[in-house]
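Handout, section B. The chain below has 465 residues.
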Amino acid sequence: MTKKITLFQLIAMSIAFYGSIRNVPTVASSGWEVIFFMAGAAILFAIPISLIAAELATGWPQEGGPQVWIKAAFGSKWAFVVSWLLWVQMLVGMQMVGSAFASIFAYSIHRPDLVNDGSYIAITTMVIFWIVTLANLKGSLGKWISTFGSVIGIYIPFTLLVILGIWYWIQYGNVNLGPLNFNSAIPDITNLSKWSFFAGICFIFAGLEIASVHANDIDNPKKNYPIAVFISIGAMVIFNLIAGLTEANAIPVHDIQLANILQPFQIYFTDLNIPWITSILGLMICVGMIAQMSAWILGPSKSMVKVAEEGYLPAILQKRNKDDIPISFVLLQAAAVSLISLLFVFIPGINTVYFMVLILTTILYSIVYLFIISAEVKLHYAATDVPRAFKIPGGSAGMWLICILAYLGVGITIIISFIPSIDIPNDKKLTYILFESIGTVIFFVIPLVIFKFKKESWKKMVVAK
């Protein structure tokens, strides 16, 4: 028998799937208001999506996750759309990681002037992503990079950030954050631009449905999976709040650089008279970002190559190398990331571009979540004969409560994502709206067009393994 996953292991895996130090500057930029946004994201997004994904994963545990659930509920057409959106949002997300890498690397080599150089950001993002891509063409090397890099560049820096942030607060008190009261913690909900931060906060939890694939492998899933959900989400909320609020205390909110994770470390280590450690830690974080890129490069591509092999994409996209790596998709996504990176050349200001890309990623992922929620509703009634090791508590009433909360959270996220944040310069607001609108429409329509004009010959050319 396969050894069951313990409750502790599931909690650790859940946090590892969507925990990232990269999100801390976004949290910090909202000040005390982030408490409101974080609580809303947990109640209207993280918890409902986790519970929905768990029921679907235990009912349809086949490899493929969301695509399998959507296919069971709505058929191959919409399963293909979901596969495509998951792949595309990862392209945008990896470009975002690459631009953050370029920013951190500039500070690590004592060249902060490069951070505002769009050409440097674009070129560095392209180069590092291509290096990681080529490394992953050899499967074993990619796995080693992901494992080693996660410890060096994610877990150690995140722990240090929390500890140093608390130390700085104890040492100097509340110097920049201001008093915590009703006015500082509750945003002006009549100011719609403020709600743009909600989308960014929700993105912290994007990907949490991935951990649900292990729901069948845990002891007593009916009892332990909800516990794992609440503990892992609670831990991420607490750690992000501590790290984000302490950063906001150390740095005036308008000076926070969204793509510069190293910024608070510079303040902490300089105050400790060991500023040289900042560069070392910066290089460690760069290693962590390489690990993130490496960990995610193959996943969406492996999903898409399976779709291609079912006959939905041309034979050229069905190619794998001797290590079973979907080489066509891996190279195609590297080219796409390079193209997206050119935004930094044409739109000045890394904060503006970074936020625009972050929100587009959130919109695309949110569309996927709408499909997942709808699949839960559909299959709750259409597939009553399919056994689930875990079911949303409360029967149909519980299911509807959870799905309504999820619909609200995802719907609000999508709507407010099209409203320019107060941090978007006035002369870039129209650019922001056009970028998010056109990007969303194009990426959603492309798979529908491909599906409509797919050819029977694509399926016939699949080589049997």
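Note. Residues 7-460 form a domain with the Amino acid/polyamine transporter I fold (CATH 1.20.1740.10). Compare this with the example in section A.
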